[in-house]
Structures are given as C-alpha cells and as structure tokens.
Amino acid sequence: MAQPIRKKWLFSLLALAVLVPSLSFAQGFQTGTLSAVVKDQTGAGLPGVTVTVTSEERGTQRTGVTESNGVATFPVLPLGFYRVEAALSGFNTAVRTNNKVESEKNTEVAMSLALAAASETITVTGSQPVVDRTNVSANTQISTKEFEKAPVARGYQNLALFAPGVVLAPGANPNPQVHGAQSTGNVFLFDGVDTTDTVTGTFGANLNFEAIQEVSVQTAGESAEYGRASGAILNVITKSGTNRFEGSAKTIQTNDKWNANNTTKNQVTGASLARTRANHNNYDYAATLGGPVWRDRLWFFGAYETQTLVAAARQTTITNENYVSKSKVKLPNYRLTAQITPTQTIWAKYSSDPLTGIIRDDYWTGRPGDTTEAFALTAQDQGGNQKTAQYSAIFGSSVTAEAMYAQSRSKITVAPYKLSPLTNGAPHLNLADGLYYNGATFDGFVARPRDQAVGALAYFTTLGGNTHNFKAGVDWQSLKSSSFFKFPNGQLYIDENFDPVARTFTPSERLDFINAPSTSTGKIMAIYGRDKFDISRRLFLEVGLRYENETSKNDVGSKILDTSAIAPRLQASFDLSGDGRTLLGGTAGRFYQSVVLNFADQFANVPQLTNYDDNLWDPTQQKFVPNPSGSFRAGANGTQPNLNLDATYIDEITAGAQQQLGPTIGVGVRGVYRKWHKLIDTVLALDANNSAQTSYINDPNAHRDYKGVELTFEKRFSHNWNLLANYTYSQTRGNHFATIASQVDDFNAQTCKTTTDTTIGNNGTIPCSAVNATLNGRPTWDIPHVFNLLGTYAFHLGPVSLTAGGAGIYQSGASYSKSRTLNVLNNAGKTFGQTLTYFYEGQGSDRLPNWWKFSTSLEATYRLMGVDIGGKLDVFNIFNKESKVAANNTTWCNVPNPPAGSSCANAIQRYGTATGRASYLTPRNFQFTALVRF
Length: 934
Description:
single chain; Ferric Hydroxamate Uptake Protein, Chain A, domain 1; mainly beta; 25-stranded antiparallel sheet; disordered N terminus
C-alpha cells in the first residue's frame, strides 16, 4: 500500500507555493516550451504583438503578447506540433505551422512582420529545431517517426544505445554503461516517473513498444531538475490521444528456423556451437487506438500487446522428462488526457508488464542444468505496474504549476513447477550423487515498490530587458525492498540416497528453516532551484543548485544510511551567429549517484534461506530428533547503525559547439570529462582471531575518470528521410569498477599466495596490498571507438508507400585482462577460503578485435480508404557477422616453458578464448510484421 505524505509535508508544500512564487517541485514532466520571437523589418524586437499558438493535433489554443524584446513565451505546452500566428494592427499577419514542441527543450519560432496597407497573411512551414540555446545538455531524442519503421528491437532500452557515449558490455543487456559509469548508474523514467529497480539500480519495468511517442536520453550536463544518476537519464514519453481517431494492429512473427545457425566453435575444445533451431512460430500481437472523447477537451489512448514465447524443449537430468517453458507477456497501456481550461491540463495513465509461465532450472551444483526431475523445477511469474496522474497549469501570465503523483510496482514470485506429495514438496539433497530432488529451490517472492510525488512552479519575468525563468523544486520518493524466500514446506532433507522412481529415500538429516519476510526501506528527498536567463542577446546561462537527502533502514528498522549533499549546476551558451543557429556551449556540474537499497539489504537481520533448526535421523526410533547443537541463526549485520557515508558523486565538465543546418538538421561536437569521488566500497580485513570483518567506507584509494569526444549528426524526419549518426572517442580509467564491493583495499595487511605461478612476488608469495595495486587500468566497458547509425527513407509509388531502414554499429572490442586468482593467508599463514585477483598488466590489458554489424528493414503499405495495410520485414545482422565480443578464459601464467598439460600451459594456451554462443554476435535473424494502420 502506498505510504501517504505526512501532513507536515503537505502544509510545508502549500506554504511554499503561496509564499514563494518562484518555487517549483518538478522533474521530467511531459511538457515543453515554445518561444515566439517577433521582429520588424529592421530586425528589432516588436512588442505588443498578439501571438496565438494552436495545437495541430488537439485544437487547444493559448494566446500571449510579446514583451519589449519581441518575445512571447508559452511554457508547459503538451508535446506535439503547433501552429503559431502573430498579428499586430498595421502589419501583415505571420503564420508558421508544424512547429514541434519536445520535452526538455525550448522551440524558438522566429517570425517577421512587415508594414502592410491591407490585411495579409503569410504562412510558412515551421521547423523542428535540433539546436536549442536554452538547453545545451547532451540530450538525444528519438521520436516514433524516427524509429517506428527502422530495424530496432522492440524495447525502449535498445533505443538508448543509439545515443553517443552509450555502450553495452557483453552480458549487461539491456543496461548500458554511459560516460564511464556502471550499468547501475542510470535512471529510467516513464513520463517522468522513476521506474528504476530499487535494489539493483537497473531498469525495473518493460513498456508496450507501440505506446512510445519519444525517447529522451540525457547523458551529460543535466539541469538541477535531475539527479541520482551518474550515467544516463532515459525518459520514455508515451502517446496521448488527439482530435483524430488513430490506431493500429500488428502481428509480429519470428521463427528460429528462419535464422542463420551459429557457425562459431568453442575455441578450447573445437566443438561446434551450432544450435538446434526450433521450427516454431512465435507471435506477438499488438494494437493501439486513440482519439477524442470530447473534441478539443478530452482524449484517450490505449495500447495492448501480448506475446507467447515458447522456448526449446529441455530435459531433466535423471528422469529424462521433457519440459517446455511457455511464457506469456501482456503489456497494457491506457491513458486519458483532459484540457480543463486553455491553461490547465490533466492526464492519468496506467501500464503494466506481467510475464507468466517461466520455468527455471535453478539447481546449480557446479554444473548448469542439473535439475534432476520435474518436481525440482521452479515456476516464476514477474512484472509490475505504474499508475501516474499529472496536472499542469498557468496562472496569470508568468506563473506555471505542475504536479505529479505516481506508484511503480515490481514483483517476482517463484514456486514449485510441480508440487510433489512426498514431504509436501520439500527438496531432498542426495548425498550419493550430490543432486537435489523432489522440491524446487525457491518458494516465495521479491517486491520492490516505489512511490513518488513531485510538482513544479515556475516564474517567468523580464528584468533589465532580459528574460528569466526561475524554478525551484522538490522530489519525494519512498522505496522498499521486500523478500520472502523459503524452501517448499520450509524444509530441506539430506539423504543417504534418494530413489526418484520408487519415491523413497534413506534419511540422514532434516533442516527446518525459520522463515520470515525481510523488508528494507528508503526515502529520497531532493530540493532544487535554477534560473535560465539571458546575459545579453547572445549569451545565455542556466544556474542551478540541487540538495539531495537519501536515507535507508534495514529490515528491523535500524538506520543504515543518511546522506545529504549539494550539487551545483551550470549551463552556458553563446549564440555565435546571432540567429540561434550556431552555438558554443558548455556545462559544469556535480552529480550524485543513488545508493540503492541493495546496500541496506546487506545489513538484514532476517536473512532468507539461512536460519534453521537441525534434526538428525535416529534409526533406532525411526524418526528425526533435534540436534542439540544443530541450530543456526544469522543476521547480526543489521545491528550496525548509521555508517556515516557520503553518496558517491562525479564532477563533470563539457564543452562543445552546435550548428543548425536548415530547419531539421543539426551537427555538433562535444567534449566530456568526468571524475568520480567518494566511491563507496567494502573493505575486508582479518581481526586478531582470524575472523574476516567487513567495513563500508568512502574509499580514498578508489578512483575512476572518463574522457570523451563526441561528433553528432541529426536529421529529423522530413522530406521522406531521417538520420541519426554519431561517433564517440573515449577512455575510462581507474581501479574501482564495481557497485559497492571491489577489492581496492581488501586484506591489505595480509599476504597472498599462489602455488601455480611462482613468478609472482617471491616464489608465488606477495603482499595483498601489492595485488590490489595491480587493479589500475580500464574496465570491460572501456570502448574507445563507437559509431552509431539509425535512419529511414520513405518513397511512394502511387498508393503504395515503401520505407527502407538501416541501423548499424561499429565499435572497438571489449577489453580483458591477464589475471590469476591468489589465496589470502590468515595470520597463521594458512588459507581460509578468501581470494584476490592479481592482474599481470593491470585491468583491461588486452582488447578483442573491432567489430560491426548492420541491420535493415523494409516496410510496404497500401492505402485503401484511409487505411494503410501492409507488412514489414526486419533483418538483424544482415551480413551475418559473428564476431567475438567476449573472452571466457582470462587466467594467465608467466612461468616460462611450462610442462605440456600443466595448469600454466593450459592457461597460456586458452587465454583470450571464447567457449560459448553468448561470446559471439548473434547470427542473422528475421522478424516479420503484418500491420494495419489508420
């Protein structure tokens, strides 16, 4: 259940709204700004001009009057295309159509009025400006027109990969690394609502692809309205209904038999990595419908998608039972938008992403896929929902207000795939073969809800002939991390042997687990203020300050984290040409990274699948009897109080230039520098009793920095084509590339040893501090060269419309390292199970070859009575490139001329090799879509 905001907060917010007209409480709203700049024939600003902006999609109108500088500003406009009309007695009337308003941007519409003896209206087509002097952050925006007909995998996460500075290390999909940050450093927003996983810091929800109107990827220089991200802020903006009934229906079909087979081999064994391709059609059905409920006042939009995914048949290890994971996903998305008055808009939205029917093989006993029988399989359902309501309004001519409340829910439930009647489904560990029978690994759930309340007030004014846009704000969030995992029936049997056919067992031991739920909680409160203003006609500044506070408690209410910080932000742009088309700009700012609830979970007093009472089998009594010393209780970690930690932050500087070429084309160059500070890390050490102790600190020895240069080209969809292209050269360096647990200062007082490579240290013995010193280098996601390309071209042959699309990527290979695992010795010089990794030449000492791939698509539609009927073919990796993108074997040895077959010889021979399909690019694959669109 959502936790309400306390009354004192409500009173505080009301008081601030009344007393301080420049205050706002907002982040990532689904609105934009349009500025009409009206000049006379001499180029001087023309005051007193009546400007009317009309939504070309919804018919709503707003009217304003230009000030002394000839500018009329229209803030908090719903996104879309607008008609702008400027009229003044004695002058001709100017009209510009097709002016696009986007999120986080100011659309500047230049208009010129001339003296006219008679009434005259001059209409021209407006532009979709790429260059915006009021926002010089690194922001890549991709709209439906630009990706709908391109060969893009159906997921909003995939669209972010076309932004400069974004890379995807093997295995991180679909959570990218951005400008040197980890994959856990991004914030994922749906219409401004934070849907980031509260525990992992990765994406926390899926969304109906047909519901997406635009994806905004901010990677650097964000204003003070945004925080808690060291990577990208990815905001997915969903569609809203218009005055026109519009809709679509699609059937997306795939079949693995159509696709190319793997031609690669295991580089160690030489075994083919070809797969058995299932000749089975997988269908994805999607439909949308939107339009007016009350023309010019109330609109609806709905999207629904469902897909059944049938995996290849698998077989249990012992009983040889076939099982097929047949999962089903549903993606509803419903939205209602109302224009209450010409200056007040409200909308509400619901979306969800339930995925059911997953069958998991969760028993890993040193070898994957060791599930013995159907009773030992796990069934899993997952998904969640988002509920959002937003209100925006204009009061008078200079004050705007926006408010939003949202709930985001995410949950995973697991249970036995088939419940065995034997011991009520409790699992049995067979000591004879080391395998589990009769019961699933898990029975329980994890839940990660987030509640969010934000709002906005802004004040627009002119001081000294220059415009100012003041804003200040609050963002409040409540987070949870709940888990409740147990063995089926709360027991684990340990048997001398187990017969899966006769369903009999020879008991040895039974563990009765103490099961209880565990919930960590967190709170986020951010307050910010900023001002966008002109210093002169050509120099524009944005100055902001953001205060953030983050607290968390473990599952027994002990405070684990209470950190506060202040983050200054600055943006500046200089209009070199004086017409807003050539800009020099830069940003400087501090950005704090959220400390996810996984940190509070480390101090749980109610660990899962851990506490138990031990019972031994008594053959004399033929029953289990309590083991007097067999109870186990864990969970003391949670007694550690506030750790007095500061949040990790980065200092960032960017500088660049942008050039508008024509109404829809822009090019740019940008340099980015980032440096991390106060990285949170675990430090492991031994006490006098040889017990390993863990402490959490802002490690002064942990460091990381990023340098990059980006070249961008952007052509919005017009005159039948669009193109997004960018190139990034970058480098990431440091010694700390983990979330909170690297080995930077682990066991510095101890000695490490290896008996395999005696060239390390003194005959294989080396101080652990010297091992940690080898961490300096580059992470796997240090990709120096990345080139992205996404575009479409449309042409018409009578009633037939054809659109060809292309998407390509070229990038440097991932780095990997010559390394070896060393044992840590305790105070008595003995091994005790702890290890550290030694890097012979630092992290990232080697690099895989550069690789590329290109995908293409072709959509053909026939227009009949206002309805488009047709199909689309997507071919991913059309040239069937199967480049190696990951190295599975990175262990090394420096012993010269090692004996053949020795571990050293094997390490040298296998270094840098790949052994699985996932280490290579996916071969060419196809997707066909039948569609109806109106």
